[in-house]
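Suppose you are handed a protein chain with no further information: no name, no annotation, nothing but its sequence. What can you learn? This example shows the usual starting point.
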Amino acid sequence: MVSDNVAAWLLDSDPALRWQVERDLLAAPEQVWRATRARVAEEGFGARMLALQDATGQWAGGAFFPAGFDFDTVEADGQPWTATTWSLNSLREWGLDPAVLRARRTPELIAEHSRWEYEDLPYWDGEVDCCINAWTLANGAWLGVDVTRLVDWFADHQLADGGWNCEWVEGSTRSSFHSTLNSLKGLLAHDSFAKTDTTRAVRRGGMEYLLTRGLRRRLSTGEPVGPWTNQFRYPHRWAYSVLNAADHFRAASLVDGTPPDPRLADAVEIIRAARQSDGRWLQGPRLTGRVWFDVDVTEGEPSKWLTLFGTRVLSWWDER
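A reasonable first move is to predict its three-dimensional structure. Written in structure tokens, the prediction is:
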């Protein structure tokens, strides 16, 4: 599924990406990709992010937003991506060994110093936003924090259609593609460390919500929910796309030991059609907002991250 030229291009990258290429695309021996993965803490993106952690165990002095953030600037400047939650998300997704952060007492320091901007709630308890709670669940499970309360929270806040919506606090009773995918990711991350009957059941409902809609269509009319489903970007942050969703279903199938669901077919062909003739995928419109440093290319350029995701989704699907 990957040519020699594209493989060489992908391997010439940061350890955070390279170990995944070795494992998922090139079937390198485990000792090879694990050795590359261990370098995430020592060089490149991972080492740079670790160097930005402050004495309180946080990044940018805040839980979801930097300390002292002027919320009136969100609409003009975009969401900043530098605070603790976003930084932990990146390190986890890049494959950092959680022992590195545990050695720094990061879970304890965050518990002591970090509070949510919403009602000053304790960090590891989560708050009311589905996406925020999903990232807290994933990061807590990764770092060995007891976040079982959040597993129960997702079971209690699953909507009748099987998914979730961050606007449930405003009275919404219909699920959101974005909120549902992020919730599923958090639950799957927890299952990777400690699978439970509860997480299996609630994940099944959320997956059905997306699958019955072909990852991109309204259940009522069959029409696409919006052009954003076909806009592929990295970093994903909170944003939904069929590539982001299909890569999650691939990861879930590996954890659960299940084959690809046939209802993914339409989404997979959209991903295939976006592949350029040289085997690469192009960066889409990136989300605006302050970052610590760039980890991928600008819009319209060939993206190594998207090429990794697209290639491994197609390989998984075509080998079913």
